[in-house]
Amino acid sequence: MQLKTITELLNLQNIQVESMLEQTDNSLHFYVDLVEPVAPVCSACGIVHHSAIHSVGWIRAEDLPLSGKRVFLYVPKRKIRCPRDGKIRVEYFSWLRCRFTARFAEQVYRLTSIATNAEAGWYLNLDDETVYRIDRGILEELSREKLFPVPAPSAMSVDEVAWQKWHKYVTNVVDLDKRLVIWNQNGRGKGVLDQFFKALGADNSSKIAAVACDGARGFLSSIRQHAANTLVVLDHFHVKSYLNEAMDRVRKEQLAKARKEENSALANLLHCRKKFIPLQGHSSRKQRDLLDRLADLNNTVYRAMLLKEQFLEIYRCATSRKHARAGLRQWIAAALRSGIAPFQELAKKFFRKRHVILNYFQERITSAISEGINNKIKRLKRMAYGYKDVTYFLLKIHQHCGLLNPRLQLKYE
After folding, report:
1. Residues 255 and 314 both lie in one domain
2. Which whole number is the average pLDDT over 118-145?
3. What is the pTM of this model?
């Protein structure tokens, strides 16, 4: 193959192949040089300097494969004295990323968005550390371009997910319209979310129409402080989980009581293998028969089930905030009169959070997208067997679930 043809295949700006140094069974080695001599660009200040050349060296850079063979380019690089700081600086090429071409680094970045660093390194014959350095460098460069300033959402959800043991969390803010993570930070609570609103700015914060969250006090306090006009919606999936927790506490209490009284018929119905039957919204005929038997044997569990269904009926039937408010008021009164301790505690909790619960019927948004993204993040963490560097982990979240995903860049540019 002629060197001119190889130069055209490589298609590098002002670069031509001078000679083939070596050809093996799995690699090609080319010496390249400038087509036309131009003044070098300083790698420190990015300015073209016309001063005298200090010295000339060369580096070996890997490019994308040709015909299944690895391609190595031996590139001469001039050294100059930068007039700004007086130090000797090496020449800068826009198509080079350290010892790899920019398009090769882009290939690494694309592979790590769908596979682990170890798998990408195996495919490209690179060690894990090299893949990590290339991937992190591109992610940091893209984050400065796409994540700063923080994209302003019209509706968002906020949630945290554990990234290590011992209660180490990262907080993620999701744009509900784009269904993507737009901001994240190590830690959780009010102080972390305050950083998001500070980065977003007071003007953009005031334009957020609604926020869905799990009702954590820190999140609520931060939202009220920085986005006072924003409608805060308590995610109804979390509300239903509170009901299920109360229902399960009742089941456990009655199971312990049945075992103490040696009531085997009731104990068999309340056993942990059947604990999900009272929690399900839709049951089979066999499960309904078990529920009917349970109602005959234990009035407390039966009344707890009725309270749970009565509350869920609010979500199923309420068509407006006013309608839901009346239903919630009735349910809180019924739960307080029931004498069932877990539901009495839950009624007090729902009374304190009644405003954010009722906001759902005004702006029907949830944090379901955040929960789905949390599952993706957990899968990402399991694939890599955990992360030691939380900064890199935050960037990987953006790569897999945010604006740094290579499959979504064109869509949101």
Report:
1. yes
2. 94
3. 0.85
